[in-house]
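pinging the channel bc i need a second pair of eyes. not urgent but kinda urgent?? the chain im working w is below, pasted from the shared doc
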Amino acid sequence: MLSERFGVALGDAAQRVVAVPIEAGEAPLLGVAAGAPGLRFHTVTRDREGVPVLYAISLYPGDRYEIALTQRR
């Protein structure tokens, strides 16, 4: 949508994942008990000039998420 509607030429994205206990206010939204393990993602997407165009924080229950990584040289 950023590129189609607004002409943003996407560049790269940096994402950091942190293991956290899910807080009491978030737990009912995710269907888990307060204190359950979770994964909090912090994402910054930049355009080709390096200007941030998207910032997001996402929280996932730790027992319902899988991370697959591929590394190339």
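so The chain has a mean pLDDT of 93. and The longest strand covers residues 10-21. — does that match what u expected or am i reading it wrong
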